[in-house]
């Protein structure tokens, strides 16, 4: 019986292809199949990042995710739509693994940091040899391009999803030492209101598409909410450590 293929979850970093690790590039180039998440009719960010490393003989497997938001009218539910998508995606990847083909799933940033690969890992890692290669996460790319050291000494960093309800955001951000707020997009106006209420506007830094060609850095007060893309985040760096 033919050996089964191996599954690789490759972190491909925040956008700049030079931020891939040597290991990710090596495994990417040697995989028979390269799987990537994408919206219908779109290439997807992860594939755009790695395209220049791929050969013509490598199979590309698009995992087309449904267009949805986290709140859907009944009887639809976000959880069901997403679960069905990942069940189907895992099935497509497993077909190649069963046939003995190695599959590299590319994942923007780090695969285990809010990464789509996590849901494939949950479904497949128990059945197939699986390796995960970490990538540069967006918050560290953001800190680098903003020139903002994030946490000094014993400070605590809170990582918060902008999808949370307004009162929950306020509760989690109140009294935080340093914070990263992800998944802005349509949540931006809500997040900014909370930062205003907490008096954090002076400390909060905004970046969109960090390290990509279209990167933009703006003062938070000047950001137009309707223009905020999904690939954006806010950082609140910890107060600089005063050396004695
Ligand atoms: C599903 S999470 C994926 C996180 C990714 N796995 C990582 O390691 O950073 C998507 C969120 O990450 C953030 N993000 C990812 N790439 C980014 C970039 N290049 N610039 C700014 N924010 C980014 C945004 O907040 C976006 O809403």
Can you describe this structure?
It is a single chain. By secondary structure, this protein is of the alpha/beta class. It folds into two domains: 130 residues, Tetrapyrrole methylase, N-terminal domain (Cobalt-precorrin-4 Transmethylase, domain 1, 3-Layer(aba) Sandwich); 98 residues, 2-Layer Sandwich (Methyltransferase, Cobalt-precorrin-4 Transmethylase, Domain 2), CATH 3.30.950.10. Helix content is 29%, strand content 20%. The chain has seven helices and ten strands. It has a five-stranded parallel β-sheet, sandwiched between helices. The radius of gyration is 19 Å and the shape is globular. The chain starts with 6 loop residues before the first strand and ends in an 8-residue tail after the last strand. 36% of the residues are buried. The site of S-adenosylmethionine has 25 residues, from helix 5, strand 8 and strand 10. One of its GO terms (molecular function) is precorrin-2 C20-methyltransferase activity. Belongs to the precorrin methyltransferase family. Keywords: Cobalamin biosynthesis, Methyltransferase, S-adenosyl-L-methionine, Transferase.
